[in-house]
UniProtKB/TrEMBL annotation:
Matching InterPro entries: EF-G-like_DII, EFG_II, EFG_III/V, EFG_V-like, P-loop_NTPase, Ribosomal_Su5_D2-typ_SF, Ribsml_uS5_D2-typ_fold_subgr, Small_GTP-bd
Tr-type G domain: residues covered: 1-236
SUPFAM superfamilies per the UniProt record, alphabetical: EF-G C-terminal domain-like, P-loop containing nucleoside triphosphate hydrolases, Ribosomal protein S5 domain 2-like, Translation proteins
Organism this protein belongs to: Clostridium fermenticellae
Listed name of the protein: GTP-binding protein
TM stretches of this protein: none
Gene3D superfamilies: 3.30.230.10, 3.30.70.240, Elongation Factor G (Translational Gtpase), domain 3, P-loop containing nucleotide triphosphate hydrolases, Translation factors
GO molecular function, one term: GTPase activity
Pfam families named among the record's database cross-references: EF-G_D2, EFG_C, EFG_III, EFG_IV, GTP_EFTU
Signal peptide extent: none
Summary of the function given for this chain in its UniProt record: Abolishes the inhibitory effect of tetracyclin on protein synthesis by a non-covalent modification of the ribosomes.
GO biological process, one term: response to antibiotic
NCBIfam families: small_GTP
Amino acid sequence: MNKTIGIFAHVDAGKTTFAEQILYHTKSIKNLGRVDHKDAFLDMHNVEMERGITVFSEQGVFEYNSSTYYLVDTPGHMDFSMEMERSINIVDYAILIISGTHGIQSQTEVIWELLRKNKIPTFIFINKIDIKTADVSSVLDEIRLNLTDDIYLMDDSSFKDGSMDTDLIEFIAEKDENLIEMYLENGYDKELWLKYVQNLIKQNKLFPCFSGSALKDIGIDTFIEKLDSLTFTEYKNDLPFSGIVYKIRHDENMNKITYIKALSGMLNVKQEMRIGKNLNKVNEIRIYNGDKFKTTESISAGELFAVCGLSSSKIGNGVGNLNEDIDYSLAPTLKTKVIIDEKLNAREVLSYFKILEDEDPGLNVSWNEKAKEIQVHIMGVVQLEILKQIVLERFNLEVEFGSCKILYKETILKGSMGYGHFEPLRHYAEVHLKLEPGERGSGIVFNSECSTENLEIGTQNLIRTHIYERKHRGILTGSPLTDLKITLITGRAHIKHTCGGDFREATLRALRQGLEMSENIVLEPYYRFKISADTEYMGKIISDIQKLNGSFRNPDIHDGKVFIKGRGPVSEFMNYNLEFITSTNGRGKINFQFDGYDICHNEEKVIEKVGYNKNADIEYTSASVFCSKGQGFLVPWDKAKEYMHCLK
């Protein structure tokens, strides 16, 4: 049985040390490394060894009983959350490590929400119980308060000779009235109850909890044994091959390595594999364990493997029989420019950053022609520090970065119709779109209500492609559009003159014209925060939140402590952490997590500062092109409706 297990945690909870113990106990590695000794098996990059944090998701492989396990160690720092999220989509089960001394922290909740969103069965391990300040009972209370009530602390006494103890039986029985009736009538059936517990875990109705110490090797054997007995997978090899690209790396010779999770079927060397519209021959299949790999002639469903030379592959691609790509939730909130020596070739430097973007799509590397600079998107300043070191190590290139700027977005507040017409000589296309505000965080959603009598299905699909093939700019700041429902109402083609690119022009003009007809707003990223401090600092904290344009719930006060939950703009709160620590004399605690985009609190100021001129943006225009007497002529957006052919 193939099982992929992901290990997740807030930074410094002991996640990598835990992974090291699992691999050591299962004899996957011969020597037990340590993060502080800079020899942990899965922290194999220099930047990770030096900083003592996980930056890249890496995998180990081990055998236990009759199963093959793929163990994925993920980053715990907030700035590398996108790397962590990409691992969630390939794991069968998650292990969430929570520090017994610090309890639930901001990133713990981010991880938990992503695991629940993706319905990943989760085991919880309370770590560092060897430390005097550890308090398992307190952490369990935190879990019940902030994460879920459906936990059960399992230890050696929970399963005696494979049978459950009375407390566990009663806990499970509460989940199902039929089960408790069977128990009262027929007594305890070991196999039946084990299967029931397995299914409860699989269905995210039960979250087994364990405690121990990864550093001191306490509770590791018990955990491995229970993990093995309480988990199962049901991959099918008799189906067509399908999989998902979850990671891309480049070796020292810049050869591209594509990492894939096989979801169904089998794949052999020399077999062709579809990625998008391309068929790629698989010349070599690798199974990685840390930075070492072995080659194999074939793989089966449930395995993690790597293939070299797939130039068109992108992270999130569905491969084989899986046609859909993965959409990830997390996105950068900041952008910055790359500062390089004037003697360097900027285009060459751009090519290096494009390699990094291939490995981390969230960087969204671009060349700003107007400013003549490379721009990248990031999650935070720690990521910039790491990025600087990576560029030096891999490309022998010293770079600096400019100050971080907020990534804004735009949307609309009310619906409108958008009309686009493209008819220079010997070309023809017309598109009518209905624009409506979408739910916050929904992105761009397209559907069609167009009759096939007006546009054939192939043309409607082409318009859909043009909607999704690029990011569209708003008209206020030129920021990316989001939270928009776009519906194709009708359109028109010409049997003789419509040719390639005509509907692209008409579609983009219709979208832009619809924005001009609507009420547009700027969106900005928000943080959700949790604050705890002595009550003497409550007045100052509340004053700070209000000053920073934040909002908050009524404070809770317990045992001389105040607890405040709220949210506020990233632009205002991104540097507040240091001020907070100073103002509370280091005795307060504040946790931030990304809370999506919402209406910008200082829109006019942002619009003025950005200085975007919608009429000077040559890549986007809301004007339509019509033809009269063999000559094309432009019609501005506010007059275009009068000229549309479909409305006559």
